[in-house]
Amino acid sequence: MSSTTTRAAAWTAAALILLAVLTTSAAAAAKPLVTPTRNARLHATVLVNAAGHTLYNLSVERKGRFICTNGTCLSLWHPLLVAKGTKPTGRVPLGTVRRPDGRIQVTYKGAPLYTFVQDVKRGDAKGEGFRDVGVWHATTVGGKAAPAPAPSPGPYGY
C-alpha cells in the first residue's frame, strides 16, 4: 500500500470516528434529562427522568438545605445528578445545587429532584405522600400539586 493510500485511509477512518462521536453526542443532547408527563394515578402532570421514572422533592428541602444526606435516606431516594459544569436539559427550566457531598443535583424551582427506589416502571408514583421529616411529593408542573394518597408510615427519620 502506498503512503498516499495509507494517509487517505487514515483520514477516512478519522472522519468516520468523528462523525460517529458527533452523532452520538447530538443524540444524547437531544434527549432531555427531565420531561413533564401526565400521570393518570395522580391526575397531574409530573416530571420524569429520561427512563420515565417519577421525580420527587422533599417539602423541607429548599434553598440549599438538605435533609436527605445519610445512607438510609439515599438508599430509598436517589438524587438526580449531573456532572460538574453540566447544564441539565429538559422541557422545563432546570437548575442545579451542590449537595453536601459535593455532587451536583438537578433542581426544579429550587427543589432538589429524586427518584424513589420502589418506582420500577414508568408511571409508578409509590413515593407520593411518603412522610418522614417532611413529605415527599411527585414534582408537578402547572396546576395544583398532586393529591396525596394515603400516607406511608415514616419509620426512617433521617
Structure characterization notes:
- This protein is 22% helix and 23% strand.
- The strands form four sheets. Strands 5, 6, 7 and 8 form a four-stranded antiparallel sheet that branches.
- The protein is of the alpha+beta class and 158 residues long.
- It folds into two domains: 1-30; 32-138, no CATH class.
Number of strands: 10
Shape: globular
Kindly name the structural category: alpha+beta
Low-confidence stretches: 18-28, 144-153
Which percent range describes the beta-strand content?
15-25%
Tell me the series of helices and strands, N- to C-terminal. HEEEHEEEEEEE
Give the fraction of residues assigned to helices: 10-25%
Report the major sheet.
4 strands, antiparallel
Q: What is the typical, i.e. mean, pLDDT?
A: 82
As a whole number of angstroms, the C-alpha radius of gyration is: 21 Å
Helix count from the secondary structure assignment? 2
Layout: helices, strands, pairs:
Layout: H1 3-30, E1 34-39, E2 44-49, E3 56-58, H2 71-76, E4 77-79, E5 81-82, E6 95-98, E7 104-108, E8 111-112, E9 114-116, E10 136-138
Antiparallel strand pairs: 1-2, 3-10, 4-9, 5-7, 6-7, 7-8
Q: How would you sum up this structure in a few lines?
A:
The chain is of the alpha+beta class. 22% of the residues lie in helices and 23% in strands. It has 2 domains: 30 residues; 107 residues, no CATH class.
Keywords for this entry:
two-stranded antiparallel ribbon, four-stranded antiparallel sheet, globular, 10 strands, alpha+beta, about 160 residues
